[in-house]
Amino acid sequence: TIRDVRGVSDAPLGNFSLDDNGFRYVKAPTTFKAWSSQPRIAQEYLPELEALLKREVDGCDEILFYDARIRQEADEGLRVKGLSYNPFARQVHTDNTERSVLDKIRNMTDMKADYLLSGRARIINIWRPIKHPVYDCGLAIADGGKLRDDDVLECDRHRADTGQYWDTMGVIKYRDGYDWYYCSEQAEEDVLLFKNYDSDTSVKARICLHTAFDLPPETVPPDAPTRESIEVRALIF
């Protein structure tokens, strides 16, 4: 069962926290509309997200954005030069493991890595529908506070074109007991923040499982547009 966050508490988008659940939904309206312009996304949208993270995430002293991708499947969807384009990922996963996170930090920050790693390091994804609400293919999030240490298996990723090793991700062993959530008709202002890594071992939720999933056909309005979204990944120190 995947529960709708709109109905789980008195709060309109549920009462979740990054440290207890690994995710939270926040209201974050944006006036940005230039989703087809990579330079404007970098110059205008990422600073907006930086302000959002500093407002919503405790202990957010330094932010490094390292990936932004448009997700859609319809032919009429966005093709953004300079951004990753990806179809929906319909596999339960977490984007990184500790090994790939440490490699990423060292590759991105070089001589500053040891200093940054002496404190808390996190990866948080910022996921937003664009152009219209989500009707057909939502993003499901599992409560990271209910994960066990042995639920996640490290899996190497290789480039499809060359077979060259790329990095590692986490894939999941099936069991009963995961608590899954989504946001019905998630709109552009309904932003999802979720963890892919946290070096702080004292918090309940250090990572968050997620996957795209198709909503039941009978719930999808006739002629509903296919979901389009932007996902940005941030290293936070």
How does this model look, in words?
The protein has 237 residues and is an alpha+beta fold. The chain has one domain: Sandwich (Jelly Rolls). Helix content is 17%, strand content 32%. The protein has 4 helices and 13 strands. A 6-stranded mixed β-sheet has the order 2-11-6-13-3-4. Strands 1-10-7-12 form a 4-stranded mixed β-sheet, with no helix packed on it. Strand 8 and strand 9 form a beta hairpin. It is globular. The relative contact order is 0.28. InterPro entries: AsaB-like (IPR044053). One of its GO terms (molecular function) is oxidoreductase activity. Keywords: Oxidoreductase.
Structure at a glance:
With 237 residues, this protein is α+β, with helices and mostly antiparallel strands. The protein is built from 4 helices and 13 strands. 29% of the residues are buried.
Tell me the domain tally.
1
**CATH topological fold name:** Jelly Rolls
- Main beta sheet: 6 strands, mixed
Work out the helix count: 4
What is the rounded distance between the termini?
35 Å
Work out the radius of gyration: 17 Å
Level-1 CATH class name: Mainly Beta
Determine the fraction of residues in helical runs and give it as a percent range.
10-25%
In terms of quaternary structure, the protein is single chain
Structural class: alpha+beta
Strand coverage percent: 25-35%
Tally of strands: 13
What is the CATH architecture annotation?
A: Sandwich
Order of helices and strands: EHEHEEEHHEEEEEEEE
Order the strands across the largest sheet as they lie in space.
2-11-6-13-3-4
Averaged pLDDT, please? 91
Tertiary shape = globular
pLDDT < 50 runs, ≥5 residues: 75-85
